[in-house]
Structures are given as C-alpha cells and as structure tokens.
Specification:
The protein has 266 residues and is α+β, with helices and mostly antiparallel strands. It is 39% helix and 27% strand.
Length: 266
Amino acid sequence: MTLKHKIVVGVGMALVLIGAILGVVFYATRELPRESDAFLTLVEQGKIAEAYQSTAAEFRAGTSEEEFRRFLETTSLGEYQSASWSSRSIESERGKLEGTITTKSGGKIPLTMEFVKEGGAWKIYAMRKPRGGLTDETGESKPSLPTEAEAEQLARETLASFGQAVKVKDFTVFYESLSPIWKKETDVAGLQSNFQSFMSADLDLSAAIAAPIEWEGPASLDENDLHVLAGCMPEIPRPDSALTFDLKYHFGGARWELVGIEVNVR
C-alpha cells in the first residue's frame, strides 16, 4: 500500500511539473500569437500595405510590397478566420510559430511564422507555407510551369529590361529584377562588366518586346527545378542578325525570378 501510494504521488508531482513547464512556455510565447493574429487580421481586412509595414525591417528588405502582394494572391490567407499553433518557441530574440490557419470556408493552411524582436516588439521575420498540389518523391512541392502566354511575357519582359540596361549603359534597374539568390553572388558592377561588349557595340534591343520568337523547345524545369526559356528572335537587333537567349528562373514563392541569362547576337 505504501509503495503504491508513493507511485501515485510521484506521478501526480510529474504531471504538476509538466503542467508548470507548459504554462511557462505559453506565457513566454504569448505575444507571438497576438502578433500573428494582428497581422493576419490586417490581411483579412485587405489592409495589405499596413500588414507589410508591420513586418520586420529585414523581411521588407528581402521582399518588396509587390512580391508580398503576389504571395498573398497565391494563398487563401486573405480568408483568415483563426489559427491553431501546435508549436511555439522563443530563443533569445527569435521566436517561431508552427501550426494551421483555418479560413472562412473551412480550409486549412499549414503555416510557419518566424519572429525577431525589434524595438522591444515582436515582428514577423519570415513566413513559410508548403505549396499545395503534386510533390516529388522527397515530399517537396514542384512549382507549376507558367502557361505558354505567361512564359512568353516573362521572356519578353526580361529581354526588354536587359535591352534598356544596355541602351542606357546602366544595369541598376535590371539588377533589381534578379532573384535574391543571384543578387548574393553578384552586384551591379559585376553584372554590367559581363555585358560590356553589348554596351560598347551600342546595340538596340528595343524591338525584342514585340519581335517573333522561335522557341528551342517547350518550357521545362531542369534538374534544379529552374524554369528554362530558350529561343531566338530573327532580325534582332538588325535585319541581318538574330538574337538568341537562354533564360533561367527560380520560383521565389510568389513569382518566377531570374537567376541566369545568356544572350548572344549572331
């Protein structure tokens, strides 16, 4: 009897200890759900600019407001109703929430939100949502290829921006259109140096925005899940020449972003 009594008491003490630990965790992380709810409520109310400005400085430095809007357009977060966080944690001045968002229509969206403390307040540092749809054998979602019309527009916009950079001999604006992945590997000066021969030749590529395209093959994803667009524009920049191009894009979660360009005039 005495032994059994001791076991029951021990179990009771363990349960009390576990409850106390959980209580401490929930208390320490209580501000994270409040911040996420305030943010998602702004999104649900259509106050996108206000929601964007409420994020951390580093979030805004890495994601433009336009990219933020495009990301929201690919999700149902605008139909936010409630959130259930299965995991919450804080380490130093970094916080993290993992859980599920419930939409007004009853849909479920897995979501991870990371936070950083700025000026004594928690701010959203990063957001991650798994892509829905088909996945490969690793369980990772494959990005969907753009339609033929979207792919053509993507190529034309890239080549038009490139042509303008060559014309004004300044790649600053073109550089801003690159994927953050590529930006980490080069700067404006380095990019400009690679295409110095185009600028020296005073090539006019402005007609590329509307010129016919002869595609090398159908749009595809390579082994690195990069979207490859390759083709030729006859009579660009001159009637006796042709512009060939090979463009590579990485899907940044909201749009296809340029990570590689090869352009030649023959």
